[in-house]
């Protein structure tokens, strides 16, 4: 089935819930967002809380003591409230601008994207999932990439073209989003954030779940060292494209900033808060530029 047909069929169903606020769709940071279809599909969106999320409480030392349990609950509640407050503060200046998350696919990136969509009352899309759906499944998409590279890249571009024409989306973008000037230009219709996850964490994730990367360049089987080597090569090819994002959130730097000795202690909530802060900085700069351009 053609990509356009898949996207259009997704757009035929109503949204799962009403937006946080109703406002006109914004002009993008570099281009004007086309007026989107008002109905976005339930079956292609993941609005609920992500299935996998490491909460802040997981980094706390749990004990059987009631006071310790209460403290953990308070920390989790405080984190949730802080995220909701930051999302509310950001929303007014964001004005429906879509968010594109780039970087090698991994569970942290996708889980964070779903949580971010929840907080902003946006809709969540995974561009690789749409490409796979259009091709007839993940295996068919990989086969298409191996047999018809040009056709596969055209499908990726068509998906991005459709998504970039809408507002109020959080898009977990696949590797193809940064591999051509056309696709990079489409990302300019929103805010792009590079989620830079350490390669060893990604390698471990692939060993546990080999469906995380839609790439024929990563072997379906192999040792940790082999997978890590393949990921490093892929990262080297894509890093320049990732670096064009409007902002970067490095998991390693975030762990150092938060004083975590173990990088695994960085939670989905930690990353989401950092992303919201970066979005806030970008929207403030844009607002200042708009005000400076106004005639006296």
TrEMBL record:
One of its GO terms (cellular component) is cytosol. Keywords: Kinase, Transferase. The keyword Kinase applies. The keyword Transmembrane helix does not apply. It is found in: Plastid, Chloroplast. Pfam families: SKI. GO terms for molecular function: kinase activity. InterPro entries: P-loop_NTPase, Shikimate/glucono_kinase, Shikimate_kinase/TSH1. Belongs to the shikimate kinase family. This is Shikimate kinase. It comes from Corchorus olitorius.
